[in-house]
Amino acid sequence: MVAVIGPAELRNAFYYNENKCSQGNAVCLYAHLFPNDAALLGEREKIMRLRLRAALHPTAQKSILHISLNFHPSEKIENENLLLIVKEYMELIGYAEQPYLVYRHFDAGHPHVHVVASLIQSDGIRKKTQFIGRDISKPATRYLERKYGLVQAEKKDEVFSMILHPVDLDKVRYGELPTKSAISKVVRAVVKHYNFTSLPELNAVLNQFNVVADRGAVGSKMFEKKGLQYSLMTPEGKKKGVPIKASSIFGKPTLHHLEQLFVLNKSSRNDLKGRIRWIVRDILQEKPDIETFLSKMADEHIKVILRQNEDGFVYGMTFVDNVSLAVFNGRELGKSYSASGILGQLSMSDNHPSFCYNRTKSQAILRVINFKSGFKNVLKTLAMKGIGVIAEMGTDGQMQYKMGHIKSHPTHFWRCDNETEKYFRASGLHERNSEGILKGFQQLYPERAFVDDGQDYFPPPERVEAIIKAALDAFFAYSEEPYEHVSRELMQEAKRKKRKRKRL
What we know:
Blueprint: E1 2-8, H1 10-22, E2 26-32, H2 43-54, E3 64-70, H3 79-92, E4 100-105, E5 112-118, H4 132-148, H5 156-163, H6 169-173, H7 179-193, H8 199-206, E6 211-214, H9 221-224, E7 229-233, E8 239-245, H10 255-266, H11 274-284, H12 290-299, E9 302-308, E10 314-321, E11 326-329, H13 330-333, H14 339-343, H15 353-368, H16 375-384, E12 387-393, E13 399-405, E14 414-415, H17 418-426, H18 431-443, H19 461-479, H20 488-503
Antiparallel strand pairs: 1-3, 2-4, 3-5, 4-5, 6-7, 7-8, 9-10, 10-11, 12-13, 13-14
Helix pairs in contact: 1-2, 3-4, 16-19, 18-19
């Protein structure tokens, strides 16, 4: 049993439930301290009773306590027993002498009721609501769970699953579910319960429920004026239906309000990091591949989002913990929890994101490189694209070569095709000088290049020239020494090409 409780404005709370009744998604079961039974009361009589009580304290902006009591989906509770539980709950939290209405809703996959109760006492004093959920409501629900044998919801993920579900896009498509109501329910619950510190982090949570927050295109009027709207989103990431302005949602989750929340959440999230770190370390000890890692994290109710650019380069990871109800970027948890840190600890497979990216990117570059332009120009092209080459001795005694993005782990580099390997062998590239060239390439790119947004980073041309010159100096310093792994035929071919270039 889960109770969601808090003060609300009379009109909003009352018509939220009455509109559900008019749509056939709810029914008013009980009216406490009203002149007639619920079945005999009209909409006007109900709201007038609550307005008369609110008039006793005219300065109170929120004169209603709006409560949602949620039960486990496996529990089939008849109206008679449901009212018994609700009445005892209201007595336990001190509202037996307050007028209230009980509505049973049928628009979710679990039994639940809403209670609209007046906060204004008969003497005109407003009842206090500070910490009512923690100090008064929670002990009451625990007591009722034990007394009536109800399913206990102690874990946060169980609690949240009872009050929020992804928006049913099929129902919205055919007009069975009002768009604004569906979006508002998700947004209000996420903003209230989750800890996030940026709009992308908020969207990481909202996307789980088929909703997205959108500021509009950069440079648009809405973006410049810091506007915000919420839309439904398909699993493919496409927006659907008419967007809803943030200011029209109860609680007004506008960008201004969210920015204040970002600052507040930053100061209270350190204690929420431990669970993700512990689970990640535990799973990585098994050296899983990427699919197993994502699956095991999902089993722990943690959604892992791989942030990739258009080319497929994984530049970041976001963790949505649906138990501690917090969102973190990997680097915020520590360097070993960043995308490169975690991908470097996963076992290799053809589906590994870094390997797939390195294979695709390297093959694309090799198709456009002019190998006849000389080794220096080949190195320059690779440097400008952020691609490094690693040379290592194979089991057959031949030098093997792997290519990959300099920001990815070397174990995720893609092995070159035969023709490319022949070129590198003929050019005299081996372990020692390839290591020096790779380190030179890495100096071209700052520490956080590709990390923040995954966009391509282009180093200044003059910087490239200086690094290439230093790399070639190191390369030819090593190349003066004899090495046995290059065949005599290839060495003779390389010398012929060198003499030919000099004549030209």
